[in-house]
Amino acid sequence: MYNAALRAVRPVVVRSTRRSTPSNAFRALSTTTPRFSGPAPPSLYGEGAKPGEIPSDEQQATGLERFQLLGEMNGVESFDLEPLDSSRVGTLEDPIKVFSLDTSRIVGCTGAPAESHELHWFTVKKEKNRRCPECGSVYALDFQGVEHHDAHHH
Questions:
Q1: Would the pLDDT of 99 be above 90?
Q2: Which of 33, 58, 61, 117 has its CA 20 to 30 A from that of 3?
Q3: Contacts of 89-94 spanning 24+ positions with Cβ under 8 A
Q4: Alpha-carbon distance 150 to 102, whole Å?
Q5: Mean per-residue pLDDT, 56-77
Q6: What's the rounded mean pLDDT across residues 16-39?
């Protein structure tokens, strides 16, 4: 299907490239919109090393690793590594809030007070609170992300 579309477009592109003045025919076939204003999004790809050199972490890091590395270079903690509140048992009326930028998050409960039972892992979702099967503590997702941001997931 893609090759058939390219075959259909090829005569228009060939005619437009032979002219010395730019043609609007090729622009009509473009699928990307031009960027005229606003800052560029931050790059999550490093520039890489020059040929013959060994790249540093800053040059080769990508994605979340680069995000964390750039945060550390600026003195910012990119990810919250602090444990959840285990000084109390969460109830249906007052659950323990779990911050998340996604619609679900994996939580580990060790009980209240801390280490009162074995570690239990479970997933807390935005739509529903979750109760620990051992101690009964209730956890609720404090969703702070963009709505429908995960629409591309399967």
A1: no
A2: 33
A3: 89/135, 89/136, 89/137, 90/137, 90/138, 90/139, 90/140, 91/138, 92/129, 92/138
A4: 8
A5: 86
A6: 53
Structure tokens at 10: 């090829």
* pLDDT(90) > 50: yes
Nearest-CA neighbor of 130 among 104, 112, 101, 100? 104
79-88 pLDDT per residue, tens: 777 777 778 8
Query: Which residues are CB-neighbours of 139 under 8 A, at least 6 positions away?
Result: 84, 90, 95, 96, 98, 107, 109, 124, 129, 130, 131, 132
